[in-house]
Amino acid sequence: MFAAFSPLSAQELDPALADRVRARLADGAIHWGGDDEGGAPYQFRDANDPNKVVGFEVDVMDAVARSLSKRLGTPIRAEFAKYEWVSLPQGLAKGDFDVIASGMEMTAENREKMRFSRPYYVYSQQLVVRADETRISALVDCRPLAVGTLSQSAAERILQEYGITRIQSFEGQTEPYRDLELGRIDAVLLDRPIAVYYAGANPRLKFVGERIGQGYYGLGMRHEDADLAAALDAALGDTMTSGELQRIFRKWKLWNEDQAALASRPNPAELAGLGFDAEGKPLDAQATGDDRTAGDIASESAKAWTFDRYAPLLVRAAGMTVFLSVASMALAMTLGLVICVLRLYGFAPLRCAALAYVEFFRGIPLLLLLTFLYFGLPELGVDIGAITAAILGFGLNYAAYEAEIYRSAIESVPRGQWEAGRALGMSEPLTFRRVVFPQAFRTALGPMTNDFVAMFKDTSLVSVIAVRELTKEYQILARSSLKYVELGLLTAALYLAMSVPLGYLSRYLEKRWGAGR
User: Fold this and answer.
1) Of 26 and 506, which is predicted with more confidence?
2) How far apart are CA 168 and CA 148, in angstroms?
3) Are strands 99-100 and 29-34 parallel, antiparallel or unpaired?
4) Neighbour tally for 276: CB within 10 Å
5) 3-class DSSP string for 237-306
6) Among 286, 298, 126, 145, residue whose Cα is nearest residue 206
7) Whole-angstrom Cα distance, residue 40 to residue 408?
């Protein structure tokens, strides 16, 4: 499928090309997108330093950055950008990073979305079943059964081609194997590096059948980034010819004859120098062919995830949840009051516009609004940051609900209060501000508090636009450590610590203000 690799010169790139690439990477970094949420062995959190992301693609991108530094004659570093796997193409198109390096399969569908570098890894699919499974010996046996896989992956397309109709698609790569263990599905088909890491050392699971569906991982870029693609091709070639790529794959127990052939297309006599005999068989199964030992990394990593390592990360993420909720609620309350006043007391066109606002934002899903603000607005020439988009999205959405709460509360104030204000010589605006609204606000306080508590939980939706709040942090850490219960209890405790005091505060204020009635 790919021509034999012919290494480029080890000298610097063509001067004109190098100048353009240096300008393209003017901040001295190549920003690459990936998903560290249960993303082993590609990229995942380091149990010894949870603030650090490790994985074989992290090492590959660091090696690529070092090669670019030499070829461009200027320091280049690799910087990781966290993104949900299914949203990586949108993030690339938006310009949130320069390159995708996250097991991105070089399929025809993906080629329509992005330009690819030369391949750096040969993958294949591996079928996994429970250890006591006797019905399945090959993929064709799964046609009447439920099979799990990763959403929008090559494995999902293979299952469709095999006529398997009971496909369970997951957003993460740890959940399929957990459901398989629990008996919720009958088999899992995923890329072999994933299977090796999450199933290879699990005594309750086993591999069945031959590897199928060989394909290639490549670095994804925007179609217009031809210069960057040429530079990355040269850098990947450097890592191959120097043996650095081989060392990385050996470190992660991913080196095999497919990778050796991809790196240099050697003839059988040359294979011995790469760790294979003349027939292409591994000389050292521990270091090359027996990649099931990679599962040991997973078990050791899980043991290293202790309370003192994950708790600070969850607390920090809870701080982001509080910030988003407070800022969004402040916007919602302010905007909601304006909408309410326009609907009750504005001219006819303003009343219609206020009503349209309420019906529109109550009628569309919040997830749709967040996605449009972050990914859609740039197509119209308006580019806003992820946190700004989150606050704006929640503020606009919740303002519609706050407006209705204010409206019903204001209308519940007896008309006699207005008449009393006029009898005292107050204007209508002054009566509203000093007499009507304070009473209405007391009535609205309870529903407003409920909305505020709901917003704490709804902030979990911002993960789709690359904001890491408490629920997202829990998902990332749980998939890295496989401690779903332990981390789940701590996460629930943090949510309760944030929301329960609001209820007490609301009841206290209602009781205090109600005493003067």
Assistant:
1) 26
2) 5
3) parallel
4) 23
5) HHHHHCCHHHHHHHHCCCCCHHHHHHHHCCCHHHHHHHCECCCCCECCCCCCCCHHHHHHHHHHHHHHCC
6) 126
7) 52
Element (H, E) at 21: helix 15-24
Show the tokens assigned to 516. Answer: 């003067």
Name, in order, each residue with C-beta under 8 angstroms of 511's C-beta and a sequence gap of 6 or more: none
Q: Which two tokens stand for residue 344?
A: 């009750």
Helices (H) and strands (E) in the chain, counts: 21, 12
Contacts for 334 with CB less than 8 Å, ≥ 6 apart: none
> Can you tell me the distance from the alpha carbon of 480 to that of 299, in angstroms, rounded to the nearest whole number?
10
Six-digit token string for 220: 């994804």
492 CB neighbour count, 10 Å cutoff: 11
Q: Is the separation of the CB atoms in 400 and 420 below 8 Å? A: no
Q: Strand pairing partners for 188?
A: 128, 148
Calpha distance 492→507 (Å, rounded): 22
Burial profile 30-52: b = 16 or more Cβ within 10 angstroms, e = fewer: bbbbbbbbbbbbbbbbbbeebee
From residue 484, alpha-carbon distances to 272, 292, 317, 473, 477 in Å are 44, 24, 17, 12, 9
Phi and psi torsions of 253, nearest 5°: 60, 40
Residues 470 and 100 sit within 8 Å (Cβ to Cβ): no
pTM for the structure as a whole? 0.66
Q: Is 70 exceeded by the pLDDT of residue 58?
A: yes
Residue 143 CA: distances (Å) to CA of 24, 138, 147, 176, 207: 49, 10, 9, 17, 18
**DSSP state, residue 105:** B
Strand 220-221 to 115-116 pairing? antiparallel
DSSP 3-state assignment of 79? strand
Q: What is the pLDDT of residues 349-408, one digit of tens each?
A: 999 999 999 999 999 999 899 989 988 888 888 888 889 999 999 999 999 999 999 999
Q: Mean of the pLDDT values across residues 458-470?
A: 83
Task: Write out the two tokens for 484.
Answer: 């779903």
Sketch out the chain's domains with CATH numbers.
Answer: 15-118+218-252 (3.40.190.10), 122-215 (3.40.190.10), 307-514 (1.10.3720.10)
Q: What is the mean pLDDT of residues 241-267?
A: 81
Instruction: Report d(CA 420, CA 424) in Å as an integer.
Output: 6
Query: Phi-psi category of 104—alpha, beta or left, where left has phi over 0 and alpha has psi -120 to 50?
Result: beta
Contact partners, residue 491, CB within 8 Å, separation at least 6 = 314, 470, 471, 474
- Whole-angstrom distance, CA of residue 193 vs CA of residue 103: 10
Terminal Cα distance for the chain, rounded: 82
Chain-centroid distance of CA 72 in Å reads: 32
